[in-house]
Amino acid sequence: MTLSLNVGAPDFGGIDTPLLVIALASSPSLSDELRPVDAATGGSLGRALTRRDFRGGRDETLHLAGGERGVQRVLLVGMGAATDRRSALRRAGAIAARQAARMGVGRLAFYAGTMSAGDVEAAGLGLIAGAWDFRELKTAPPADEQRAPLEEATILTSDTAARNDGSRVARAIGEGHSLARRLGMLPGNICTPDYLAATAKEIADRYSMKLTVLGRAEMEREKMGSFLCVAQGTSQDPKLIAIEYRRGPKGAAPIVLVGKGLCFDSGGISIKPAQGMEWMKFDMCGAAGVLGAMEAIGRLELPVNVVGLIGSTTNMVSGEAVKPGDVVQASNGKYIEIINTDAEGRLVLADVLVYAKRFNPSAVIDAATLTGACVIALGHTATGVMGSDDALVQEVLDAAKRAGEPGWPLPLWDDYKELIKSDVADIKNSGGRPAGTITAALFLKEFAEGYPWVHLDVAGTAYTESDLGTVPRGSTGVPVGTFVEFVRGRVR
Ligand code: BES
Ligand code: MN
Ligand code: ZN
Question: Which of the residues 346, 402, 428, 445 is marked catalytic?
Answer without folding.
Answer: 346
